């Protein structure tokens, strides 16, 4: 039994109603809630003094706090967690929200990356928060590969997949590469890779390099090794985290320290530094999960809430996740069904295009 559940058992009906009303009023307005506000809302008529006593008890329990010297209270992180677990009433998905999300999938394009980008943009627009979409690894067979020189120390591996998807991955090539060695390396790989996925390839290609070392010159050999490194390592993280709606949080107000924490959060996300942390959120199985404030390491510095749900492919395997980042004062009852529906929508889209 959690701490929140223990406290919930200790509360009488009046305490529960006062607590629920305080949290609901705070989530609606963002302002501290005073006893006079509650006297008009409670189902039973009680005095403001009685309500103040109940609120003091709730503060002693760690569920409410006083942000200023005013008599108003706001829920603590523990209070928000208890509200989400024990009092939250999740609404049905609004038809307007559903329509906006559905419209992102009107295209018949097989470009999953482009569709997920549109889903992320729509999710941010609907929720007025920041959206995150973790895209699946691309597992379609490869049709063709090219190396493209961008300068002495920069090159691209261009991967063209059988389903039309194209990925460009930037890497640092070995010194001394020539157009001839790039063509030779690409020809060597294209003879091996057609019809195989990235997951199929690494062991086979390393074995082929060993067996056919005489057929490929030193420069081309080094380039093949570099290309393998970029799609085995960097490729796993390549553009897999789509973040949209950053401005929604930055424009939401707060003092400078709050804004700086939010900037730090998004800078980390844009550098993909914590993508493994985000991946771990999808491992607990189906359903929407809510992380409030410091409950999740990735978002603790910004004091934000993350509402996240994994999505699955046709084989019911978790392959990615969608989520919304917002302030802890989030309209949870509205956001949860939006995230849940978006995850189901993305899963169906991925399965239909597999």
TrEMBL record:
GO MF: DNA binding
UniProt keyword annotation of Flavoprotein present: no
Highest taxon of source: Bacteria
Location of the Heat-inducible transcription repressor HrcA C-terminal domain: 115-336
Keyword annotations: Repressor, Stress response, Transcription, Transcription regulation
GO terms (BP aspect): negative regulation of DNA-templated transcription
HAMAP family linked: HrcA
Function statement: Negative regulator of class I heat shock genes (grpE-dnaK-dnaJ and groELS operons). Prevents heat-shock induction of these operons.
Family, as annotated: Belongs to the HrcA family.
Name used for this protein in its record: Heat-inducible transcription repressor HrcA
Gene: hrcA
């Amino acid at each position: 039994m959690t701490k929140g559940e223990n406290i919930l058992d200790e509360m009488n009906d009046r305490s529960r109603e006062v607590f629920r009303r305080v949290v609901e009023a705070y989530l609606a307005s963002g302002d501290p809630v005073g006893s006079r506000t509650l006297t008009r809302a409670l189902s039973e008529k009680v005095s403001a003094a009685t309500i103040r006593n109940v609120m003091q008890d709730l503060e002693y329990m760690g569920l409410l706090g006083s942000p200023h010297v005013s008599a108003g209270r706001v829920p603590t992180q523990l209070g928000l967690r208890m509200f989400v677990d024990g009092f939250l009433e999740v609404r049905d998905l609004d038809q307007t929200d559903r329509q906006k999300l559905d419209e992102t999938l009107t295209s018949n394009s097989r470009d999953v990356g482009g569709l997920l980008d549109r889903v992320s943009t729509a999710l941010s627009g609907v929720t007025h928060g920041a959206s995150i979409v973790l895209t699946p690894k691309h597992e379609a067979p490869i049709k063709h590969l090219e190396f493209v020189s961008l300068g002495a120390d920069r090159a691209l591996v261009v991967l063209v997949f059988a389903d039309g998807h194209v990925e460009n991955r930037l890497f640092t090539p070995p010194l001394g590469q020539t157009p001839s060695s790039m063509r030779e390396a690409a020809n060597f790989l294209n003879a091996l890779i057609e019809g195989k996925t990235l997951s199929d390839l690494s062991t086979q290609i390393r074995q082929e390099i060993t067996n056919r070392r005489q057929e490929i010159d030193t420069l081309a050999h080094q380039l093949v090794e570099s290309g393998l490194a970029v799609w085995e390592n960097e490729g796993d993280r390549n553009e897999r985290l789509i973040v949209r709606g950053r401005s929604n949080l930055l424009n939401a107000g707060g003092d400078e320290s709050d804004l700086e924490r939010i900037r730090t959060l998004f800078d980390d996300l844009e550098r993909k530094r914590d993508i493994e942390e985000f991946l771990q959120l999808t491992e607990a199985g189906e359903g929407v999960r809510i992380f409030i404030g410091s409950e999740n390491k990735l978002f603790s510095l910004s004091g934000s809430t993350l509402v996240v749900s994994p999505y699955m492919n046709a084989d019911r395997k978790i392959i990615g996740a969608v989520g919304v980042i917002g302030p802890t004062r989030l309209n949870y009852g509205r956001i949860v069904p939006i995230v849940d529906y978006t995850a189901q929508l993305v899963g169906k889209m991925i399965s239909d295009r597999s």
